[in-house]
Amino acid sequence: MPPVFPMLTVLSMFYYMCLRRRARTATRGEMNSRRAIESNTRALPINVEIVQYAKEVLDFSSHYGSENSMSYTMWNLAGIPNVYPSSGDFTQTAVFRTYGTWWDRCPSARLPFKRTPSTFCSQDYVELAFEEPVYPTAVHILETYHPGAVVRILACSANPYSQNPPAEVRWEVLWSEAPTKVNGPQARQFTPCIKQINFPTNLIRLEVNSSLLDYYTELDAVVLHGVKERPVLSLKTSMIDMNDIDEDEDEEKFGCGMDTLNKQFSIVTLREWPTNGYFDKLPYELIQLILSHLAVPDLCRLAQTCKLLYQHCCDPLQYIHLSLQPYWARINDTSLEYLQSRCTLIQWLNLSWTGNRGAISVSGFSRFLKVCGSELVRLELSCGHFLNETCLEVITEMCPNLQELNLSSCDKIPPQAFNHIAKVGSLKRLILYRTKVEQTALLSILNFCSELQHLSLGSCVMIEDYDLIASMMGAKCKKLRSLDLWRCKNITESGIAELASGCQLLEELDLGWCPTLQSSTGCFTNLARKLPNLQKLFLTANRSVCDTDIEELAANCTHLRQLDILVTFIFMTISFVN
């Protein structure tokens, strides 16, 4: 009979691992008011729980409000609640730019990237800094209108108030879930059951998906509960929960998925197999088609199995369209370096949300584009705060075939850098929402990029004369199909007349929160008569809109499907369905 001691050793090790896992997911304390209380008495040593509201809003992808006010802006998430527990539409809350699915159905909608993991559904985000780093025990989100948009909560190891930046920045998912429909718009305190992490944090990130909402979601405040010392359960009160082991799988999906990019892409020594089974009998093209359904981390893992699949997984044809946005927390210079040899034929690249806090350097980004930029047609760089003038110069030099460029919320790019974009005469889509582009640079872009079909200038507050910009569009951009002028402060009926006369192919026009437009000048009537192809028109918050304007739109714009006249004297949003 073989000895049982090895089996006992294995069981002991398994029991020890379960105890350690249980300690990491210890019972969390709860608190409903802003005061310190003792945490669960089973936790050793005893900690005092700290409750704190967000001190500062560090970053966000979009907001409904203006860059020069506090109404409906993300900055309202800092501090104590302004509205909660009241329900309703309040200007003192934080509101993102979009809701529902109609943004994906309008003329300016972009085609989605294939291979986006089904678990990644985030559309917007906001990052909040708190005073004290703690081990989180609970996160309370105070939602005051149309709740249910939050789909993921993350914690960061970096302290935004530390004088010494860490060598490595880690993000851990505290909670995530697919979008769900919430019955009713009433206020609520959302407190999901969060996972414990092994580092203290004072930087929390909320990611949202508003596609199931009937109206804009409004957030009032975020409350972080936590303890200064990492809680450890007493062994005699610990009960092993086998479900805890499964949580490691979620960590691997988010954490290790991109680690494989950095470590496993470089593996060249693979085990020799005498045969590859049925794969030897399949045509090369068929294997490529099968692998095209795998996400990037899955390609990394599969590449380790044998030389045949390694060859297929590293084929540049697998990386014609590549979105790294779902893995934003793990992408860095090393990731881009290992991807270079596989992306020599890349045409669509999504680096939105990536590279912040030093993860991607200017030199690392430049090296990648010098190798992989020649075939690029579409480049998504939304919220890329590592971008500077050098990066834009490299883009314009290394991407001669570029047709679509998204710089949405890249608010760290200096104004003079946008002059380089004028060199890309093939551009058909340019998104400059919430950037510091100035009038001189924009006039140069419009003059040389006459192929533009989609242009977003929403919340571009450094443009002095939008009438001049509209006149240049009318003269040079005859192919324009969609134009976003959300919250431009100084366009008048003169600019609208020039625009309507020169850009008669327009199907989508956003003039929301443009206070200098007055119906009495006939500008809206002129729009309706000159732009018969309009499918979407936003006149949000223009209190001069009158019945005559609506009648002209109904009579002349027979393709109109979306008309936003919210916060006007007519007080309604109309949707036309053909």
Automatic annotation (TrEMBL):
Specify the domain of life of the species encoding this protein: Eukaryota
So which residues are the signal peptide here? none
Which PROSITE patterns does the protein's record reference? Answer: FBOX
GO annotations under biological process? SCF-dependent proteasomal ubiquitin-dependent protein catabolic process
| Residue ranges of every copy of the F-box domain listed in the record | 276-331
| GO terms for cellular component | SCF ubiquitin ligase complex
* Listed InterPro entries: F-box-like_dom_sf (IPR036047), F-box_dom (IPR001810), FBXL15_LRR (IPR057207), Leu-rich_rpt_Cys-con_subtyp (IPR006553), LRR_dom_sf (IPR032675)
- Sorted UniProt keywords: Leucine-rich repeat, Ubl conjugation pathway
Protein name from the UniProt record: F-box and leucine rich repeat protein 4
